[in-house]
Amino acid sequence: MVGEQVAAAHGVQGADLLLSGRHGDPHQFLGRHGSIVRAYRPGALEMRLLRPGVAPVEMKMIHPAGLFETSEAKTSGSDGAGAYELEAAYGTGADRRTYRFHDPYSAWPTLGEVDLHLFGEGRHHRLWEVLGAHRRVHEGVAGTAFAVWAPNATSVRVVGDWNFWDGRVHPMRSLGASGVWEIFVPGVEAGTRYKYEILTTDGALRTKTDPMALSMEIPPATASVVTAESEYPWGDGEWMRQRREGDLLHQAISVYEIHLGSWRWTTGEDGKARPLNYRELAEVLPAYLGDLGFTHVEFMPIAEHPFSGSWGYQVSGYYAPTSRYGSPDDLRCLIDALHRAGIGVIVDWVPAHFPKDDFALARFDGTALYEHADPRQGEHPDWGTLIFNFGRNEVRNFLVANALYWVQEFHVDALRVDAVASMLYLDYSRKAGEWVPNRFGGREDLEAVAFVKEVNTVLFGEHPGATVIAEESTSWPGVSRPVYLGGLGFGFKWNMGWMHDTLDYFHHDPIHRRYHHGELTFGLLYAWSENFVLPLSHDEVVHGKGSLLNKMPGDRWQQLANLRALYAWMWAHPGKQLVFMGAEFAPEGEWDHNRELDWWILDHWEQHRGVRDLLRELNGVYRSHPALWQADDVAAGFEWIGADDSDQSVLSFLRKSTGSTGSTGASVDGAASATAGEVLCVANLTPVVRHNYRVGMAGPGAWREILNTDEARWGGSGVTGPDERHCEPVAWGGRPWSMELTLPPLGVVWLAPLRR
């Protein structure tokens, strides 16, 4: 009888699809249709329709599963229009309970045709504002709009705390060819947990987190969390103004890389040790970095990730700052505090791959949606992760908008893109037969290349002064050259070759270094082919590689002296500097993400405090001498003085600022200038003091020592020279003048012209 009533009124098919969870557009069946209102609440025994100023209308059950219907025209004075609410009753007698709610199926879609069109073309640069979960007032009712892309799903339902995670309650509607599913659920508040139930074409039911979630539960929990629109009162207006007008390439940059979960710990309310949260970090990190003189901090990935041991490089929530350390506004507070302290913020960004966790992006709608279907293109053999399908408009849009999201919503100053090489090459870490050539038969991933260029073009265009940094380990040409000049468009590139060669050189015992001299000079053959960052990152102090200190040969004094020399060599070398947290006090052990740094070392070992104090001095002297950073990107800003003294393992070079003349008398920019904009760096990388060591100079003048890594206050032996060093008319090294120096053991000396 019930089935006949349904068939007579509106056909069996709509009800069957709804009750079986396969209806692709439940709004066409439920809600108001003319004077008819239908509602579905699984398990409800009664349902009433409520309208202002009109007596409640008892709705008729047309299916015992909880499907009800009524005609508003039966209500005196009703014209079938206007707002209404529903009241569902469950149980009988003492167990009877009622719930009153606005009908989700009476609302129009919250996405417009323009949004869907731009998304389909891959050009919606504010995607996070329309997809995902958003608190809003819609048609006069407060609630949350949910929208998710799942084009191959049979049906999609949103489940959460408010509907007891029952997918039958809130099936979503498909917005046609866009592949987007949408529903507005009245009454859902910020802080509510939710996921999507996705019925695939093969009948499987998958429960997924929201790819566009702006917040997620603290791992190992995996639910998405409805987040209120941020009302954080930013105080970094002056920083942002200067950023827009700045030129990072010609600024002093020294970066402190940090893993937030293992920098400093505190004791929680439960008496257990835990990492500092975002707001606690805001109280101490800016002051610490400011004291050491760093210009920027780089956060290892802070997008949500399920496994702490991945250090954030296996992302499950690209739009959700990890909740381990607080809310999105708590992160805004940290970045704001850093900016107000004059420190820029770089965030690691991971578009190269994503994990296979079943709750996240992998086979999101039952198909290879975000990833390539062919494992030869869609899986990373090294990391056991999946590769984005960069050729799909919507996937590309998801990632391009994500890059913009971090820069716009969190005022991030730069994105450091992880594992760029793995995106550029189809045969990355693959043997013959394990990869698919591009349409020209080559190994370059043309779709990934186009994606990278698009990200950089869009971000630089919309956010002048922000930048993008590539971790790219091959010789791909033009990584940090503009797209319009045929490059990939990054602002900077990590110099992995410099890092490997330099650490290999310093690893050798000084007696053997004469045979490895070229490892320090080779990098200057290509130093201006890209805009380089010199990285001594977390990757160099994990997985059995040992700490930087333990890479150095000799006894403890020599190890520390080598490390001090390495830092001074690095800070004087063309390129921007990056070191991993802890480098400032030379810990003996490898980095362990499960505990805080070995801060106790500073309380017990004066020599380790000396390394920290030297690094502070390096940053200070570096920032105050434009010769060390102003002409980083041109060969004219560098000049070898002595590159061939391999027998004594001594190297010397001149850094020149814009306008300085250098030892040859040639100006960097063609303009006449004094030599005040120069710094001479001389490195003696053996434990032997070099007395009366002569270096060639262009002409007369007095020079003063501005940094010496062997000073006693850093823990050195105290071999320093006189306050003034004068050039003499003694030809040396092809130059008409020269200067004698005393070079400290395992030491680096910087000198600058003495102004009168």
What does this protein look like?
This protein has 756 residues and is an alpha+beta fold. The chain has four domains: 2-106, Immunoglobulin-like (Sandwich), CATH 2.60.40; 113-225, Sandwich (Immunoglobulin-like); 252-467 and 480-491, Alpha-Beta Barrel (TIM Barrel); 497-582 and 595-753, Golgi alpha-mannosidase II (Immunoglobulin-like, Sandwich). Helix content is 22%, strand content 25%. It has 16 helices and 38 strands. The strands form ten sheets. It has an eight-stranded parallel barrel with strand order 17-20-23-26-27-28-29-30, surrounded by four helices. A hairpin with a 2-residue loop joins strand 1 (31-33) and strand 2 (36-40). Helix 1 (2-10) crosses helix 2 (12-19) and helix 8 runs parallel beside helix 10 (446-462). The longest helix is centred in the C-terminal third of the chain and has 19 residues, at 606-624. It is elongated and about 105 Å long. The model is unreliable at 1-11, 75-80, 663-667 and 669-675 (pLDDT under 50).
